[in-house]
Design a protein that fits this description.
Layout (H helix, E strand, L loop, with lengths): L1 H4 L5 H12 L5 H8 L4 H5 L2 E2 L7 E2 L16 H35 L11 H11 L8 H17 L13 H10 L6 H11 L8 H31 L5 E5 L9 E7 L2 H10 L3 H9 L5 E6 H11 L3 E3 L4 H6 L5 E4 L8 H7 L3 E4 L10 E2 L7 H15 L15 E5 L3 H9 L7 H8 L5 E5 L11 H12 L2 E5 L1 H9 L6 H6 L2 H10 L4 E3 L6 H14 L11 E5 L5 H12 L3 E4 L9 H15 L3 E3 L3 H19 L12 H8 L1
Parallel strand pairs: 4-5, 4-7, 5-6, 7-8, 8-9, 11-12, 11-14, 12-13, 14-15, 15-16
Antiparallel strand pairs: 1-2, 3-10
Bound molecules: iron/sulfur cluster and Broken Fe4S4 cluster.
Length: 648
């Protein structure tokens, strides 16, 4: 059991890991064991298989071989691999955005029953941002034009992406001077693939310029488009109370888990689960009701808008099924494990894929038909309800593991929470940063990774930051990890935050850790940082702000793209677990240091979450010093003794 405990800090997960062992079900940790030791060349980023003369591997310790068959060195190989990962991450976010844009236009055309423009105010401000005239047009006409303007962002060949203009002026000028303003989203991603083909771009710094341009096309392009249009379509989130962890599963109800990233279908599944006929059918099958829970970013999306409970984050998808209580799991795109078919096969769970881009061999496929999403959603809910009597193995729900949380902090909401409903403004936030009550702002985001103890690094890092008066903004699986730990409720301020941050949070009744949404919603962090710059008094660029970013348990290529658009936007960003260029000395030095001279932001790599917090706090303090708002203050170290005190 001692070994088992290292898999997760979450007792709900440990309970079900134990059940999986008893049920002889293999989980991702078991497969990691089977895969270990993993290839050192791959870990160091110096394995290339970009042509059929390879694969070629460079020995990072100075022994031969030092060149691939085509003559490239470790720097070029690692830079190309890094760039390809960013292209994949940017593509994932942006293709999600494309699906949202298409659904948005069809909604404006009245072609999707059940979908409507929910936030007209945000639509109008978006139209103004994009230069779309609203004069004499009804909502549908404005929406159609906004949708078309945003659809053009994908295929543009020149000029600048529209949302670049949302950034602080100084940042825009810096990007232009560096030649990294994205032209069109698809164009930048295609160019990554061209440049990394054998015999094209062989200069690691030039490859990194394209990395910056592509990542910016994600953060200030694809991701921002997805966030903005989802807000208009499904409603701009406002603070909402929800609950989190596997204890949200109901033993006597039909449990449906929605998993993945695109909220289009899950919105309709939520609606179908409230359908009287389906509720009656559930009763007929012996169930007391229909319970929807989310996993990964689909969870974050429906939590923020409907308060639907969150079953867990990335490393909880398999164990949710192991509970034996999940009657259907519906997956769309991204972060869904192929092993779910095997795990679901050991229980009664119906695994349903819904997106033509993401089918699983052995799973049932029920395509999400945009022309009639409610029909598809009803069909899915019916499958789950009819599956309820088929539970065949012991049901174990860690009922004690369910925590309250508050989610739904868009950058607009922060405005109102701090500034008040009638004078929404970032002024109080800026003032509290200037007077030192809030030391700085940190974005802590990203995935889980089976290589490190599940959730431990997120929770330790965030506790350390808030104890030192750093306000934390979160998205994705990191937000779910901290929600389970009870950090996303206003009371957490009194319990965990330093005195300054606690005072501010208590005054306005907000948590010290703000849940801003899903992976694409990291664009909200960019917008919040921009709003702070525009409010004044803290410099004139994002790189002047006392802020930092981190993804302590990252694993996906999307995380690399997010990290790099943070860096290219001027933010110091620390990643944990592993770093993909360590076999390339010069490239790594450039990313960890040299790039700061060009972009004002840089990367760091640290596997210890306490040390990560120190790096971030030191950076925040340096920025405070440069702004002339530093004053002598004692750093609170959230050490073992303090943790023990809290546990007693
Ligand atoms: Fe080897 Fe060069 Fe081909 Fe890569 S591109 S596999 S380094 S020969
Ligand atoms: S779901 S990308 S594991 S945050 Fe967005 Fe979580 Fe990372 Fe997927």
């Amino acid at each position: 059991m001692a070994d088992e405990k290292r898999k997760s800090i979450d007792p709900a997960v440990l309970t079900l890991v134990e059940k999986a062992a008893a049920d002889e079900v293999m989980l991702c940790w078991d497969r990691l064991d089977e895969q270990s030791p993993q290839c050192g060349y791959g870990i160091a980023g110096v394995c290339c298989r970009n042509c059929a003369m390879g694969p070629c591997q460079i020995n990072p310790f100075g022994d031969a071989p030092q060149k691939g068959v085509c003559g490239v060195d470790a720097e070029t190989i690692a830079a190309r691999n890094f760039l390809r990962s960013i292209a994949a991450g940017a593509a994932a976010h942006s293709d999600h955005a494309r699906a949202v844009v298409e659904a948005f236009i069809r909604t404006a055309d009245g072609e999707i029953p059940g979908f409507e423009i929910k936030d007209e105010q945000k639509l109008l401000s978006l139209a103004m941002d994009l230069g779309v005239s609203i004069e004499g047009k009804d909502t549908a006409a404005v929406a159609k034009e906004v949708g078309k303007t945003l659809r053009e962002q994908f295929g543009r060949q020149d000029g600048e992406l529209a949302f670049i203009a949302k950034a602080p002026i100084k940042r825009q000028e810096l990007w232009r001077a560096q030649g990294i303003v994205p032209r069109g989203i698809d164009r930048e991603i295609v160019e990554c693939m061209h440049r990394t083909h054998i015999g094209v771009d062989q200069d690691y710094k030039n490859l990194m310029k394209q990395a910056s341009r592509t990542a910016l096309a994600d953060g200030w392009g694809g991701s921002m488009i997805a966030t903005e249009l989802q807000d208009v379509l499904f409603g701009n989130p406002v603070p909402i109370v929800g609950s989190v962890n596997l204890g949200i599963l109901e033993p006597d109800q039909v449990n449906i888990i929605v998993h993945g990233h695109e909220p289009l279908l899950s919105e309709m599944v939520v609606a179908a689960s409230r359908d009287k006929e389906l509720l009656a059918l559930a009763k007929e099958k012996g169930a007391a009701g229909i319970n929807i829970g989310g996993i990964c970013c689909t969870a974050n999306e429906i939590l923020m808008r409907h308060g639907i409970p969150v079953a867990g984050n990335f490393l909880q998808q398999e164990v949710a099924v192991v509970s034996g209580a999940v009657d259907a799991m519906i997956v769309d795109v991204q972060c869904t494990l192929q092993s779910l078919t095997d795990v679901a096969g050991c229980y009664h769970t119906a695994l349903i894929t819904t997106n033509p881009k993401a089918r699983f061999f052995g799973a049932r496929h029920l395509e999400f038909d945009e022309a009639n999403p409610l029909v598809a959603a009803r069909e899915i809910v019916t499958i789950a309800v009819e599956n309820f009597p088929n539970r065949k193995r012991k049901v174990v729900i860690p009922t004690d593991n369910k925590t309250d949380m508050v989610a739904g902090f868009s950058h607009e909401t922060i405005n109102y929470i701090l500034g008040g409903l009638f004078r929404g403004s970032y002024r109080p936030l800026n003032d509290n940063i200037i007077n030192g009550r809030i030391r700085g702002i940190a974005g802590v985001v990203g995935c889980n990774n089976a290589k490190v103890t599940h959730d431990e690094h997120h929770v330790t890092l965030v506790k350390e930051l808030i104890a030192n008066d750093v306000l934390v903004l979160q998205t994705g699986c990191s937000a779910v990890a901290c929600a389970k730990e009870g950090l996303l409720v206003p009371e957490a301020a009194t319990r965990y935050a330093g005195p300054g941050l606690a005072e501010v949070c208590e005054a306005v009744g907000m948590p010290p850790v703000l849940h801003m949404g899903s992976c694409v919603d990291n664009s909200r962090i960019l917008m919040a940082a921009t709003a702070v710059v525009k409010e004044g008094g803290l410099g004139d660029d994002i790189s002047d702000l006392p802020c930092a970013g981190a993804a302590p348990e990252w694993m996906s290529e999307k995380a690399l793209s997010i990290g790099h658009y943070f860096v290219a936007s001027g933010i110091f960003t620390v990643f944990g677990v592993t770093w993909p260029t360590l076999g390339a000395k010069h490239l790594t030095e450039y990313l960890f240091s040299g790039i700061e001279e060009e972009l004002g932001g840089k990367w760091a790599f640290e596997t210890d979450p306490v040390k990560t917090a120190r790096l971030m706090i030191d950076h925040i303090d340096q920025k405070r010093h440069k702004l002339g708002i530093d004053k002598a203050r004692e750093r609170v170290l959230y050490d073992m003794e303090k943790r023990r005190e809290l546990e007693t």
